[in-house]
């Protein structure tokens, strides 16, 4: 047995150790390299071993079976105080049950977060997201978090982002869960990553806000998370003979990406484009939306060696390097997926000694009509053998992603940016929530400022700048001049019409020459005798046969 783990380099204190105490590598598997067995009978055994290894990992198991408890655990680690299954009375008079109510005091202001937990296996539909938003509006809680064990449909994600809803899918929850494990992962001061995508988006670029009053928005928390993925390079070459002794050549090569936490295959990249069927059914990879983005990063960016990672003080750096499945298990998973990817039916032709275009036997009726050339198409199933697959290289590549929390008065916003490509995967502060999203093709109304009273981010149609103090306010926290409909802050618009009591601005203010009081434009009439304009209180109305005449007090 080795003195050091060949996977992570940890010194082995126990003599003849069977497993690495740090990464869990099974040393008995190291003497059985991939590609030494000709039989395919062990393919199912590979799957069983991998599934057992994944199921035995307590954090993954916990995430699926005790979903609400897991979400609460993550929130507690982030500093939130939580209450589960709390019923709140809404404006409608009905009570709504919230899965988790989280509270946290930040910058001297208490923030409340309503959390919806859906332990789904299918993507969250838009109906559930709409119901959650309606529930938040009824109970008057500005911040919402929707969590799911699966992922979100495109419609639900677009709608939730437009309503400033934070969304955690299974992939994000796993990242959070692994990063808070006691004594594992966590923040680093300075560390070297053997292989990772380059950091091209800086902290300043990540937190930049294109808002008129961005100084009113603070950065609450900011994390640079380095998420690992296995990239396995492989090649396959095989030859098979059909019953007619015709030889068929099979080849495949490229890279496959495997999640080191769950052992799930994410995708094949850098491979030749081809399509095939497996036992008559189309093979389709069902990938999460977030995983698709990681795949795009890995396939479009070139990794660099020996990256030095350190905290700059403005943000926290987290490297998710613990709880990883060993390379030996990952290689077995890769072989299994490559076998399944290339397993397919292969057609071949056989000559038939019978009259063309007719059924002469039960066999002909079973397998179909004979072709005009006197042949019939048959097929056999090609399944690669393990020794026909060569694993060229196994790389553990770390992908950086910014996770940012913005604080704006009562509201909390989130943003995620892939730090290598600069792609913004989610940004809840960007979209105005006052618009109805009609399908995925709708253009989102981009926010221009935040209300300086409540902190709600809105577009130019729903936020207003006071022309006097030049501050920005939403409709609820601003007042309107009754004459010109101009919007002002409550401190700068205090004049009222002495006649009707409506608010008026300085430009629309009219002073009656008789009573010397302030009035709006609509309260003024012209004297039919002297032609002077004065308020309706200071005139008398005289009716004639055709029309009414106004006479001011000075002329009456």
List its traits.
seven-stranded mixed sheet; 556 residues; 30 strands; elongated; alpha+beta; five-stranded mixed sheet
Molecular structure report:
The protein has 556 residues and is α+β, with helices and mostly antiparallel strands. The chain has ten helices and 30 strands. It has helices spanning 43-55, 58-65, 67-77, 126-139, 154-162, 170-179, 203-207, 289-300, 327-342, 362-367; strands spanning 81-89, 95-106, 109-118, 143-148, 166-168, 190-196, 218-241, 247-258, 265-269, 277-278, 281-282, 304-310, 316-319, 344-351, 375-382, 389-408, 411-418, 424-427, 449-450, 457-458, 463-465, 472-474, 479-480, 487-488, 510-511, 518-519, 524-526, 533-535, 539-543, 548-552. Strands 7, 8, 9, 13, 16, 17 and 18 form a seven-stranded mixed beta sheet that branches. Strands 1-2-3-4-5 form a five-stranded mixed beta sheet, with helices on both faces. α2 packs across α3 and α4 runs parallel beside α5. The longest helix is centred in the middle third of the chain and has 16 residues, at 327-342. It is elongated.
Summarize this entry quickly.
The protein has 556 residues and is α+β, with helices and mostly antiparallel strands.
SSE inventory with pairings:
Elements: H1 43-55, H2 58-65, H3 67-77, E1 81-89, E2 95-106, E3 109-118, H4 126-139, E4 143-148, H5 154-162, E5 166-168, H6 170-179, E6 190-196, H7 203-207, E7 218-241, E8 247-258, E9 265-269, E10 277-278, E11 281-282, H8 289-300, E12 304-310, E13 316-319, H9 327-342, E14 344-351, H10 362-367, E15 375-382, E16 389-408, E17 411-418, E18 424-427, E19 449-450, E20 457-458, E21 463-465, E22 472-474, E23 479-480, E24 487-488, E25 510-511, E26 518-519, E27 524-526, E28 533-535, E29 539-543, E30 548-552
Helix pairs in contact: 1-9, 2-3, 4-5
